[in-house]
């Protein structure tokens, strides 16, 4: 069963697959890096894929960011390398609020450099005390004469230390605003975050009396959550795409192994329980892919109308990815455990996907609420 991708998306998918092939010999080394791996950044820059993350008016390729294009690119890149996928994804995640809420000056200054990956982007929301509950953030921004002053600390920020700017959420009186903070602004400092099970470029960002012009705000004071939700509407679906790519890679490893290794006089694939592990995994993969593509397709016209559906696609694909990699390791026996092998990398990389960009338990709250609202609406129409 297949979802019919149009010729425009198929062409973009071919470009992403070409970058993935170029990445293959570098992937094992890159995916162990918690700093930017320069050869991987070179592959990304040469691919021109980051131009998909910026509107055409500011150096991008399409009129606006296309969730389906981003989804299929992440599927191809994640299959090859989590490091490559993350560098690509962050260009959109970190810059989307500039595209939708920035001034022309901010857009002209930053977006063309995001589109060609000359500058790396970052989105700074999480803090030591605030993760899922972002209303608990303690970073503050306050007007001081003609300027703004930013104070606080962000934690586990992807691309920290390598990014050219931080799209940062801060408390402004009793509301929340986004500000665009250049990495070289005096008072910005970075420390590495703890190493995580699947290495990732992560840092702790401190803002100590950072002075910014009032024009550094992204959108109106108090509009921070609106722009963060707009960002998530587009990019949460793309995590589903990445999870699909990861499952596809893991299942390829397991299927190759099961077809060639024999025990009890026959290939593993002919031993019933092993066949079951493979078949269930394929079913999980295909279902997640269909839901990811269909959700991304629906979001192409109006992503913000589809946030709950994006959450559903992300939940479904990332939970499936954890089940699939676990089964694939089981199919491969001791070869599934070898440090540095593709399957072992996939196994570790699946785990954080259920935590970042909306932990599964938190997504379920919004999804269940939407389900009840849709059921009530349907019954009202009957
Ligand atoms: C690899 C990686 C990259 C990241 N990159 C970034 C980044 O670029 N920018 C950024 O801002 N942040 C980033 N983060 C942080 C990430 O967004 C947070 O880890 C995530 O939001 C969850 O917050 P937390 O870890 O504090 O967990 P908590 O919020 O403390 O949650 C812990 C557990 O409690 C559950 N839980 C929490 N609230 C509820 C609830 N109301 N009901 C039911 N269960 C609940 C959660 O589902 C989870 O299982 C990154 C994290 C990782 C691992």
Helix content: 40-55%
**Average pLDDT taken over every residue:** 96
Specify the biggest β-sheet.
4 strands, mixed
Number of helices: 11
List the secondary-structure elements in sequence, H or E. HHHHHHEEEEEEEEHEEHHHH
Number of domains: 3
User: Main sheet: which strands, in order across?
Assistant: 1-4-5-8
Determine and state the CATH class of the largest domain.
Mainly Alpha
Which ions and ligands are bound to the chains? flavin-adenine dinucleotide
What is the CATH architecture descriptor of the largest domain?
Answer: Up-down Bundle
Description of the structure:
The chain is α+β, with helices and mostly antiparallel strands and 382 residues long. The protein has 3 domains: 7-120, Butyryl-Coa Dehydrogenase, subunit A, domain 1 (Orthogonal Bundle), CATH 1.10.540.10; 122-221, Beta Barrel (Butyryl-CoA Dehydrogenase, subunit A, domain 2), CATH 2.40.110.10; 225-374, Butyryl-CoA Dehydrogenase, subunit A, domain 3 (Up-down Bundle), CATH 1.20.140.10. Helix content is 52%, strand content 16%. The chain has 11 helices and 10 strands. It has helices spanning 7-23, 27-30, 38-47, 67-80, 82-101, 104-115, 224-260, 272-299, 307-331, 342-350, 360-381; strands spanning 121-124, 140-144, 147-158, 165-172, 175-182, 188-192, 202-213, 217-218, 262-263, 266-267. A 4-stranded mixed sheet has the order 1-4-5-8, with helices on one face. It has a 4-stranded antiparallel sheet with strand order 2-3-7-6, with no helix packed on it. Helix 1 (7-23) runs antiparallel to helix 3 (38-47) and helix 9 (307-331) crosses helix 11 (360-381). The radius of gyration is 21 Å and the shape is globular. The site of flavin-adenine dinucleotide has 19 residues, from strand 1, strand 3 and helix 11.
């Amino acid at each position: 069963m297949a979802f019919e991708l149009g010729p425009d998306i198929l062409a973009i998918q071919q470009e992403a697959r070409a970058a993935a092939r170029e990445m293959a010999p570098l992937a094992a080394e890159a995916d162990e890096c918690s700093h930017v791996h320069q050869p991987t950044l070179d592959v990304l820059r040469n691919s021109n894929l980051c131009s998909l993350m910026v509107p055409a008016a500011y150096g991008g390729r399409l009129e606006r960011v296309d969730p389906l294009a981003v989804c299929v690119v992440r599927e191809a890149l994640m299959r090859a390398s989590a490091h490559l996928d993350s560098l690509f994804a962050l260009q959109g995640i970190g810059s989307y609020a500039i595209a939708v809420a920035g001034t022309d000056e901010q857009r002209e200054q930053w977006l063309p450099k995001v589109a060609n990956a000359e500058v790396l982007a970052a989105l700074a929301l999480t803090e030591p005390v605030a993760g899922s509950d972002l209303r608990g953030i303690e970073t503050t921004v306050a007007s001081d004469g003609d300027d703004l002053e930013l104070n606080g600390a962000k934690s586990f920020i992807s691309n920290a230390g390598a990014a050219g700017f931080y799209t940062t959420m801060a408390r402004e009186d009793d509301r929340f605003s986004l500000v665009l903070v250049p990495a070289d602004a005096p008072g910005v400092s970075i420390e590495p975050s703890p190493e995580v099970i699947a290495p990732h470029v992560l840092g702790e960002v401190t803002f100590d009396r950072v002075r910014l012009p009032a024009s550094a705000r992204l959108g109106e004071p108090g509009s921070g959550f609106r722009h963060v939700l707009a960002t998530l509407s587009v990019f949460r679906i793309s995590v589903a795409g990445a999870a699909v790519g990861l499952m596809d890679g893991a299942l390829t490893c397991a299927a190759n192994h099961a077809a060639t290794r024999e025990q009890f006089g026959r290939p593993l694939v002919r031993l019933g329980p092993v066949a079951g592990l493979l078949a269930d995994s394929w079913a999980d993969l295909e279902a997640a892919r269909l839901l990811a593509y269909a959700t991304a397709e629906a979001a192409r016209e109006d992503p913000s109308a589809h946030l709950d559906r994006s959450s559903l696609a992300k939940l479904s694909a990332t939970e499936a990815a954890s089940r699939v990699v676990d089964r694939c390791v089981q199919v491969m026996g001791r070869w599934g455990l070898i440090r540095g092998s593709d399957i072992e990398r996939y196994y570790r990389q699946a785990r954080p996907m259920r935590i970042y960009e909306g932990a599964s338990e938190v997504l379920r709250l919004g999804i269940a609420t939407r389900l009840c609202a849709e059921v009530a609406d349907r019954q009202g129409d009957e």
